[in-house]
Write a structure and sequence with these properties.
about 10% strand, 4-stranded mixed sheet, 5-stranded antiparallel sheet, about 400 residues, globular
Length: about 400
């Protein structure tokens, strides 16, 4: 992708008179789709309507033709792969930026899904990343402040790492196993009983193809669209994911609403190709920040943010920062998510810290992205919720788990 194409892409995303053209974005390639998906979270840059429109790229990408699907199976699957199936549906039940999913039935009658990488994206994707990195460095030369405020290189590196991870289905197997092992290891410490992971058929899977259990449920994305997801369920997702983020520091790297399936009373985490980790400094610091934010203790929130920084600030520099911090949150107390967005506040908070002289490690964006997803679910499913008040329900359990695991 040439520089002029990147400029056109950003113009499309930030178009002021109409919504972005989804078809145009998809035609620009995998990197363009991933960039647009990232901006779907950036309610601090874009209005809610545009973000919601861009979010369609998570679950509504263009499927490959039937004959191409079968040819990909023939190209990538192990010898005799098709002999394991009684039937395979040619029409996909889901399509994402790198792959699509087809329902099938094994000879023993078990219903499964086959996820196949659409094509060989890797070389073009890496070429586009290299080109965009040069373009960003060129822009930063003339506008160095952008590096601190928006961290475009850090975000690009995050897109690159999790996309490359997703392009190898074996990562989905390994990461799913790691998340499940964490659940098992701490089952007596923290209640994760409603979390499930689909069974993976490793003998039928490889780098390009994944065969897993078919989960007969609905995605959280669908339940939010149809206004049929209860607030208690949204909060339970926060409860589960919050354990991995705040207490463990290893978590699902792309837990958008399309990657969670609700079946009965359980939540299945799927598409675990990307997993994120953060250091203890950010992990515990962010928990401390959210703990104080839940009770509107802004002075301690400001301290927690500074404690998270790899380069902290002191003295008069800190006092100026604290004054601006308190000003930033003066409209936050007892406000619903529709009145004041947590996502917007979090991005403005990080921006304030950076502009005040703090420096944060690169692991910051994945954890903020997770908070954006969760905030977005509440905004879409229960806009009149005061999220900070609801969070208090889980804080005592988080504290107890933290004392046991992170002593």
């Amino acid at each position: 992708m040439r520089w002029i194409m990147f400029i056109k892409l950003f113009r499309e995303i930030f178009h002021k008179k109409r919504l972005p053209n989804i078809d145009y974005i998809q035609k620009q390639g995998l990197l363009a789709v991933k960039i647009a998906q990232t901006f779907a979270l950036r309610i601090d840059f874009l209005n809610e309507k545009t973000c919601t429109h861009l979010a369609k790229l998570y679950t509504k990408t263009v499927p490959i033709p039937n004959e191409d699907f079968l040819s990909l199976i023939e190209k990538y699957a192990r010898l005799g792969f098709l002999n394991n199936f009684e039937s395979i549906e040619e029409t996909p039940i889901g399509s994402a930026s790198i792959g699509q999913v087809h329902k099938a039935r094994l000879l023993n009658g078990e219903e499964v899904v086959i996820k196949v990488i659409k094509k060989d994206f890797k070389l073009k994707f890496l070429k586009d990343v290299k080109s965009l990195r040069r373009f960003i460095k060129f822009i930063l030369f003339f506008y160095p402040k952008l590096k601190k405020v928006a961290d475009p290189i850090g975000i690009l590196e995050h897109i690159e790492s999790y996309t490359l991870a997703e392009l190898d289905m074996r990562n989905e197997i390994r990461n799913g196993r790691e998340l499940k092992n964490i659940q098992t290891r701490y089952e007596g410490v923290f209640d994760l009983s409603r979390l499930k992971f689909p069974k993976i058929y490793e003998s039928l899977s490889n780098e390009h193809i994944l065969v897993s259990e078919y989960i007969e449920g609905e995605t959280i994305d669908y339940l939010l669209e149809t206004k049929s997801l209860d607030l208690k369920d949204i909060l339970e997702i926060f409860h589960i994911h919050g354990f991995y983020v705040f207490i463990i520091g290893t978590f699902h790297g792309d837990l958008h609403p399309g990657n969670i399936i609700k079946k009965g009373n359980d939540f299945y985490f799927i598409d675990t190709g990307a997993i994120s980790t953060v250091g203890k400094k950010i992990q515990l610091g962010l928990f401390d920040f959210m703990d104080n934010l839940a009770y509107y203790d802004y002075s301690n929130c400001a301290i927690a943010l500074n404690d998270m920084a790899s380069k902290e600030i002191y003295g008069s520099q800190y006092e100026r920062y604290l004054e601006k911090f308190l000003k930033l949150y003066e409209d936050f107390k007892n406000k619903t998510v529709s009145e004041v967005s947590l996502t917007r506040k979090m991005m403005e908070t990080i921006k304030l810290g950076v502009n005040s002289g703090m420096t944060f490690e690169k692991g910051m964006f994945p954890i903020i992205k997770s908070m954006m997803y969760l905030d977005g679910m509440v905004l879409k499913g229960a806009p009149n919720t005061i999220l900070m008040v609801e969070m208090r329900t889980f804080l005592e359990e988080f504290h107890k788990a933290n004392e046991v695991i992170n002593i």
